[in-house]
């Protein structure tokens, strides 16, 4: 009997020793990791009385440029978690967080602290604990530390020495803890109401009219109920504050939230499901004010991005028109200035109109992004006919009078020719994002409409800057070749890229609408060519074969009237090629769960930058072999016909157009956003890292 008891006791003691050694190894590993947010655990009273309690504070000190998170981190973060090693008779309560700040990065809302902060919790000591007992408290804390570019999961050992005593609190500690308590939100004495109304969530907060609300914001603690990054509309109806924002999910029962008031103060509110009052007098919020730095950075990025866009593959087809206009305006200073200003006006106005349409569609609840005009087959059809008309004009098949009194659109130049050339340049060039442009246009997701529109105008201005330089800087203009017979030959040669553009648009129409789109594209080419060549023949005083024209026009016209095309009821986007599988949030989650690297790229058939990257980098044999060797999972998001899920995903990463390339390393919480111009070396380097 005694021997068996001794054996059992020895085994238990050994097991306990092994667990203690493992715990110490874990603590040592936690200590060895450097952190970007320095934690420190302190107690208000180092001698809590048995049967009483004391308050502990976990102070968090972020390095410059780093931030930590509230209990609900928002779209991309999470709060702090502690695995406590509490002695017998000691109970640690949940941490209370101070009022956070709202930080939007890449279109995602984060609930953060960008300055030192303290989390407070109550520690209770049971009555039967003997005075003088060592109550040292320790644990392993886990949190997320982030900058505006990278996030790092961090952990550290935290501990504070406690001993059961009389509960005395030194004056210095009381003052320090009182200062931290002042930053905690106060509980509201009455419950609020919440309800879902279609795609919106409405909250009602009972708050007297005298309460100061300089910069209110509602932080919803309940996960996945609201769209965190969506604007919040505040209004006052008597002694109630009404808050409306976009819904993301649904919930049943009570919802917890934190209403930020003024000067860093806040209220903890519990919302019960019930009808909410109608909106009242609007209240100005922090989201109504524009961050000047964000606006200026986005405007500068849009101008530089538009300038760089002149070198992108998607702009090359319209360089033919620009080249002819530049050559024609090079001889006369006044003509060059007039045409440069007209070209700029056309580019800026088109970019503004496209931006305004985009903002209006978003305000109406549509999930659309930049280049939405190429996501509908009818728009592609019209652009195809325009590109073909310009090709035939450059080849001399006909002459197109412009609004400038008989001058041709590109050859004769002038104000009207410059304007429409600039408009066409902006319309065709803007679908593909270039360096700086993606982030700049992404800022329009969070700026109010009146501040977002100048960003779109800046894109058009950047696109027109080279033409402005030629028009207003004589040394540049004087270096251009003088007009001469070479222009006629150049005009015909420049019909080649424009013809290739028309061919690409016909292919895009087939990709968007299947066989029906292919027949419509063929019909559009035939009908447009016949009509314009007939016009050219009449201009040259020759017979145009009207009977043949009417017969063919009737046949082709019947092809053009296709309900599936005109109503946008096209076939689904074709399945991606062998280099990847179709993207979806579920597919991404499954891929990341395998523990393998994941490469996600978003593309569209009308994006020449995307296709250049795919041909020159992604689909290269060496890259595909490296991916296969390392087990990289590739997901492809096809945005050719538009897709609300992809549009939302682009917005979550601060983009509203393609291309977008994401690399998920094994175990990484957030992806690495790759450059918009890829090389085989870039992708191979990711695999080898």
Describe what this molecule looks like in 3D.
This is Thiol:disulfide interchange protein. One of its GO terms (biological process) is cell redox homeostasis. The protein is of the alpha+beta class and 689 residues long. The protein folds into 4 domains: 33-184, Thiol:disulfide interchange protein DsbD, N-terminal domain (Immunoglobulin-like), CATH 2.60.40; 192-288, Immunoglobulin-like (Sandwich); 292-566, no CATH class; 581-688, 3-Layer(aba) Sandwich (Glutaredoxin). 42% of the residues lie in helices and 20% in strands. α3 packs across α9 and α5 runs parallel beside α7.
SSE arrangement:
Layout: H1 2-32, E1 37-43, E2 53-62, E3 68-74, E4 81-85, E5 90-92, E6 101-105, E7 108-113, E8 117-125, E9 137-146, E10 151-160, H2 171-182, E11 186-187, E12 192-197, E13 200-206, E14 217-220, E15 233-237, E16 240-246, E17 255-260, E18 266-273, E19 281-283, H3 292-309, H4 319-329, H5 333-363, H6 377-394, H7 414-429, H8 437-442, H9 449-472, H10 474-478, H11 486-493, H12 495-539, H13 546-560, H14 563-566, E20 581-582, H15 585-593, E21 598-603, H16 608-618, H17 621-630, E22 633-638, H18 644-652, E23 660-664, E24 672-673, H19 680-688
Parallel strand pairs: 11-18, 12-18, 20-22, 21-22
Antiparallel strand pairs: 1-2, 2-8, 3-7, 4-9, 5-8, 6-7, 9-10, 12-13, 13-16, 14-17, 15-16, 15-19, 17-18, 21-23, 23-24
């Amino acid at each position: 009997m005694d021997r068996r008891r001794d054996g059992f006791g020895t085994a238990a003691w050994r097991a306990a020793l092994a667990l203690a050694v493992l715990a110490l190894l874990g603590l040592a590993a936690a200590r060895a990791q450097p952190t970007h947010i320095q934690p420190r655990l302190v107690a208000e009273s180092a001698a809590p009385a048995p049967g009483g309690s004391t308050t502990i504070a976990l102070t968090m000190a972020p390095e410059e440029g780093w931030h930590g998170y509230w209990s609900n981190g928002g779209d991309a973060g999470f709060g702090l978690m502690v695995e406590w090693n509490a002695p017998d008779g000691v109970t640690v309560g949940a941490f209370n967080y101070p009022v956070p700040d709202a930080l939007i990065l890449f279109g995602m809302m984060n609930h953060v602290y960008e300055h030192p902060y303290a989390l407070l919790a109550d520690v209770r000591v049971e009555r039967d604990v003997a005075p003088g007992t060592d109550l040292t408290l320790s644990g392993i804390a886990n949190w997320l530390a982030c900058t505006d570019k990278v996030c790092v999961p961090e952990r550290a050992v935290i501990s504070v020495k406690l001993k059961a005593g009389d509960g005395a609190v030194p004056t210095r500690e009381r003052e320090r803890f009182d200062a931290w308590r002042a930053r905690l939100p106060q509980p509201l004495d009455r419950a609020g109401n919440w309800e879902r109304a279609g795609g919106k969530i409405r909250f009602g907060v009972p708050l007297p009219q005298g309460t100061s609300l300089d910069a209110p914001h509602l932080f919803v603690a309940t996960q996945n109920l609201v769209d965190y990054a969506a604007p919040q509309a505040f209004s006052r109806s008597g002694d109630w504050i009404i808050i409306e924002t976009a819904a993301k999910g649904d919930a049943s029962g009570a919802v917890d939230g934190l209403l930020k008031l003024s000067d860093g103060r806040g209220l903890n509110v519990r919302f019960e499901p019930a009808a909410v009052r109608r909106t009242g007098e609007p209240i100005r919020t922090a989201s109504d004010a524009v961050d000047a730095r964000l606006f200026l950075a986005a405007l500068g990025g849009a101008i530089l991005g538009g300038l760089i866009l002149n070198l992108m593959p998607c702009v090359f087809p319209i360089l033919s028109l620009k080249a002819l206009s530049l050559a024609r305006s090079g001889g006369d200073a006044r003509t060059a200035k007039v045409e440069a200003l007209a070209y700029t006006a056309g580019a800026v106005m088109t970019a503004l109109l496209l931006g305004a349409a985009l903002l209006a569609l978003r305000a109406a609840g549509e999930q659309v992004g930049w280049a939405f005009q190429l996501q509908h087959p009818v728009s592609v059809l019209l652009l195809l006919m325009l590109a073909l008309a310009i090709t035939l004009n450059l080849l001399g098949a006909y002459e197109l009078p412009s609004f400038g009194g008989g001058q041709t659109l590109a050859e004769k130049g002038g104000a009207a020719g410059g304007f429409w050339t600039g408009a066409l340049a902006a319309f065709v060039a803007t679908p593909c994002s270039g360096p700086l442009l993606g982030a700049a246009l992404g800022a329009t997701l969070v700026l109010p409409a009146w501040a977002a529109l100048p960003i779109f105008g800046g894109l058009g201005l950047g696109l027109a800057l080279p033409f402005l330089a030629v028009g207003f800087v004589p040394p540049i203009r004087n270096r251009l070749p003088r007009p001469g017979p070479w222009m006629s030959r150049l005009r015909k040669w420049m019909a080649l890229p424009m013809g290739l553009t028309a061919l690409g648009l016909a292919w895009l129409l087939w990709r968007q609408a299947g066989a029906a789109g292919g027949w419509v594209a063929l019909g559009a080419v035939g009908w447009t060519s016949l009509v314009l060549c007939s016009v050219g023949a009449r201009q040259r005083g020759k017979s145009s074969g009207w009977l043949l024209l009417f017969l063919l026009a009737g046949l082709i016209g019947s092809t053009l009237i296709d309900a599936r095309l005109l109503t946008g009821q096209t076939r689904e986007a074709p399945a991606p090629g062998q280099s990847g599988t179709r993207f979806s949030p579920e597919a991404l989650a499954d891929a990341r769960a395998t523990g393998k690297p994941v490469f996600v790229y978003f593309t569209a058939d009308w994006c020449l930058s995307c296709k250049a990257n795919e041909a020159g980098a992604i689909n290269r044999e060496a890259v595909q072999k490296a991916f296969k060797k390392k087990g990289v999972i590739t997901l492809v998001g096809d945005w050719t016909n538009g897709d609300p899920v992809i549009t939302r995903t682009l917005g979550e990463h601060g983009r509203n157009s393609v291309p977008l390339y994401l690399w998920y390393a094994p175990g990484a919480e957030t992806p690495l956003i790759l450059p918009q111009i890829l090389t085989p070396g870039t992708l191979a380097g990711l695999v080898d890292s």
